[in-house]
Amino acid sequence: MKVPFSKTVMITGATSGIGAATAKIFAKNGYQLILTGRRKDRLEEVKNKLVRKYGIDIVTLCFDIRDLNATKKAYKSLKADWKNIDILINNAGLAKGFSPIHEGNIDDWETMIDTNIKGLLYITRLVSPGMVSKTKGHIINICSTAGHEVYPNGNVYSATKFAVDALTSSMRLDLYKFGIRVSQISPGHVEETEFALVRFDGDEKRARIYDDFTPLTSKDVAETIFFIATRPKHVNIQDILLMGTQQAGNNHIDRSGRKDN
Ligand code: NDP
Ligand code: 8X3
User: From the alpha carbon of 199, which atom of ligand 2 is closest?
Assistant: First the structure.
């Protein structure tokens, strides 16, 4: 299938939540996609649905972004024209656990640091040289309000997102002279994702954190990412801090009931 124009977008962590919603909006607009994640069945499901509906080209790469060798192997498996990535959306990430620092689970800490910081760095290191050599490209990092303001029990997750914020600013300084845009989006609570379920280790009861207020949806975030990516070439959005109306900060949420449309 011939795509309307040849812009290639790589979205890490496209098997659910914000990544899957972002894949949908780019697919709808005719971009060709490289979608990544660990769950092969989910990757195929997302791919098949989007190809059927929008007739675009999609390549899936199934690998664990914490594993440098697996990440390199996946990237190297791309055919030459698919390595020509125009937009990299660094979305794969997670929170694990919700404990005060003296009770934290060290395996959870390693998982968050390895995924949210090191994984983001691995894929960026592989994709960014291609952007530098053609002096164009756009890297969009998914940060969080947790990367701007800490909250009780958020400790290591927040630290990884503060690191993402620092990396966005650093990447911008390193890459602007090559005409490469670097942006980030920092959402507050977002539903239609598996974020809470993953944080609470599959405990569906604990994961019901959106019952008493209306957070953002994954579509709200995806639309904002698409907005960032589609500004004219001379415009670089550095960060968009985005929250549901009932959330005025990480420690200020109006939990008096959902106010859906
Ligand atoms: P989801 O759990 O729905 O999505 C997370 C995605 O990351 C999945 O596709 C998952 O794929 C992928 N992923 C996780 N670990 C790995 C890994 N080791 N290797 C490869 N892929 C991995 O949650 P969200 O959509 O909410 O999360 C997306 C991003 O948004 C994260 O960076 C998160 O920190 C951030 N965020 C989320 C907010 C929220 O409230 N939901 C708010 C602010 C930011 P798979 O399991 O198949 O590997
Ligand atoms: C996800 C939002 O508030 O759970 O980044 O940290 S929060």
Answer: 4
